[in-house]
Specification:
This protein has helices at about 1-40, 45-55, 65-80, 85-100, 105-120, 125-140, 145-160, 165-180, 185-200, 205-220, 225-240, 245-260, 265-280, 285-300, 305-455, 460-475, 480-490, 495-505, 510-520, 525-530, 535-550, 555-560. The chain has about 575 residues and is an all-alpha fold. The chain has a domain at about 440-565. The chain is elongated, with a radius of gyration of 48 Å.
Length: about 575
């Protein structure tokens, strides 16, 4: 704990030293810019830049003065058609409105600034305007949109490698998570931001980060650490004459002292903050100051004064709430207007692109017509010169090609006839083989039945009948016959079984046989004879085959199987 307190004390002293230098530099810069502006009365882009820079420097010191310089820059930039100066002027005016809690007017100017920077391809300017828009949404407690704009700004800064702007954005993201009560996320961004600002010796970034870290520790209940960081932020705000952060830190420290039970010290800080907040119309901090006064007097059992400040707190809270609600409604209207403007811009851009394409097309047509005319004249000359020669050669070639085509056609006819004869022969062979196969099986089955009947009725020796029956049953096995049938079948229908197995690898040998018999358009009885099963079993096998193929009710099994005879 002692080591951490010593570190905070050391950083505070270092920041104070930087604060003295930064404050002196800031006021010296304002004086120098004002002197340059007075010496440059010409209404040109240089004067626009000077006005914008003065407005920028007055942001945290005097928002009203910042707006005046921004509006003068806006007027002159519009007159000169200086889009870069106009983008910055809108940002200056927008931020001055935001610092005074006038959110609708702030968004009007900041969205315009963002749009101008985007059209100019100025990613740094676009990122800064986007971050400022996020600040407005954060103050309206629209944390979703605030985070969306902060993260978008951070992406732009990361692409540019702007470590200083990334640190500022981390402060803003951490502040949003702090307001949402997500302290772990808030702490990560705030401490990372402080590290970046410390490396860059950026006093404003250190001021802001220390303030938010103080609130982070306050909300965690670590009040000593909260006081240390808030005192550090307060010291920098005093030296920089940053009135808004001065008031904010005074109120934040008062809230810490109230939690510590140090009501005297809390009231002394509130007494310093109140007149500044009233003078500069910092409504957000006035609301919190009145709330702190209420708590101080309530803890002192001075309920009359506590009630007075409670009424003031409720009045200004209602005022801010009404303004925020009005601003939210205005935001919807503004976003609608911005969307319409964006749509109009896109339509204009599309019209311009179409006109440019039409112009290029017309130019291309003209060039093509001229080139085509010249080319046609050249070709006509060549054609006329060589017409007779080419006509003669073409006629000779035509006659040779005609003779060759006749010969090839005749060969094709002969080949087709030969193939047709071969196919007819194979079909006859397959049909004959199938018929013999059926007759053989029927004969063997009939013989088998008679032997069984004879065995049951005859008085002949049973041994001889059993031997004869076994011989018939052994010859009833159709595996060898099926192998011969398969070879004969595939001579007619090439790769039929391979095509089936490629699509349906889980088909059994019996199912493959059934598919082949379906192709031969045999009856159920004939199929049963060939497969050595009953006709009812054939129907069952056909049903299972339909399920395995995934056929719908209206799809025919025969037509489906026949398709595989046509594949190669």
């Amino acid at each position: 704990m002692k080591s951490r307190n010593f570190t905070i004390l050391f950083i505070t002293l270092l920041s104070l030293q930087e604060g003295f230098q930064a404050s002196a530099q800031a006021h010296q810069k304002i004086d120098s810019l004002a002197l340059l502006l007075n010496k440059h009365p010409q209404e040109d882009t240089l004067r626009v830049r000077l006005l914008n820079q003065l407005g920028f420097e007055y942001w945290t010191i005097n928002p009203q003065q910042s707006e005046r310089y921004g509006r003068e820059a806006h007027r002159l930039a519009t007159q000169l058609n200086d889009e870069n100066g106009l983008a910055m002027a809108n940002r200056v005016v927008g931020v001055s409105y935001w610092s005074r809690g006038e959110f609708y007017h702030a968004l009007v100017h900041l969205f315009k600034s963002q749009e101008l920077y985007k059209n100019l391809g100025d990613h740094l300017g676009e990122g800064n305007a986007t971050m400022n828009i996020g600040l407005v949404y954060a103050d309206q407690k629209d944390y979703g949109r605030a985070l969306e704009h902060f993260l978008r700004a951070n992406q732009l800064f990361e692409k540019l490698g702007r470590d200083d702007r990334i640190g500022i954005t981390y402060n803003k993201i951490g502040s949003v998570y702090l307001e949402k009560g997500e302290l772990d996320k808030a702490g990560k961004y705030l401490f990372d931001g402080l590290d970046i600002h410390t490396r860059n010796n950026f006093s404003f970034g250190i001021l802001e980060a220390c303030n938010r870290i103080g609130l982070y520790y306050r909300d965690k209940g670590e009040l000593k650490e909260a006081e240390d960081y808030l005192q550090r932020s307060l010291a920098i705000a005093e030296e920089n004459k940053d009135l808004e952060h001065l008031v904010k830190n005074l109120e934040n420290l008062a809230s810490v002292y109230i939690r510590q039970g140090n009501l005297v010290k809390a009231k002394s800080f509130l007494d310093r903050a109140l007149p500044l907040a009233q003078e500069h119309q910092y409504k957000k901090w006035l609301r919190d100051i009145y709330n702190d006064y209420k708590d101080v007097y309530a803890l002192r059992n001075d309920y009359t004064r506590a009630f007075t400040y409670a009424e003031k707190f409720e009045a200004i809270k209602d005022s801010i709430f009404s303004e925020e609600k009005a601003a939210q409604l205005a935001n919807l209207e503004l976003e609608h207007q911005m969307a319409e403007q964006q749509q109009a811009i896109k339509l204009k851009e599309k019209e311009i692109q179409l006109l440019q394409q039409q112009t290029r097309f017309d130019k291309l047509i003209k060039i093509s017509l001229i080139s085509g005319t010249i080319l046609v004249l050249i070709l006509v000359y060549i054609v006329l010169r060589n017409q007779r020669y080419r006509y003669k050669k073409n006629q000779e070639l035509l006659e040779r090609n005609h003779a060759l085509a006749e010969k090839e056609l005749e060969n094709a006819r002969l080949k087709e006839i030969e193939l047709q004869h071969a196919l007819e022969f194979k079909n006859k062979e397959l049909t004959a083989y199938t018929v013999n196969f059926i007759r053989k099986n029927e004969l063997i089955e009939e013989l088998k039945e008679k032997i069984i009947s004879l065995k049951n009725t005859s008085h002949q020796p049973q041994t001889e009948l059993n031997t004869l029956l076994n011989l018939v049953q052994q010859n009833t096995s159709i595996d060898r016959d099926w192998d011969d049938f398969k070879r004969t079948f595939e001579n007619v229908h090439h790769n039929f079984f391979g095509n089936l197995l490629n699509r349906y690898p889980d088909l059994t040998p019996a199912e493959l046989r059934l598919c082949a018999l379906i192709c031969l358009n045999l009856s159920a009885k004939e199929m049963a004879s060939l497969m050595g099963i009953s006709p009812d079993s054939v129907k069952t096998a056909r049903y299972r085959l339909r399920k395995k193929f995934g056929l719908e009710q209206e799809q025919g099994l025969d037509e489906f199987v026949l398709r595989f005879t046509q594949l190669r």
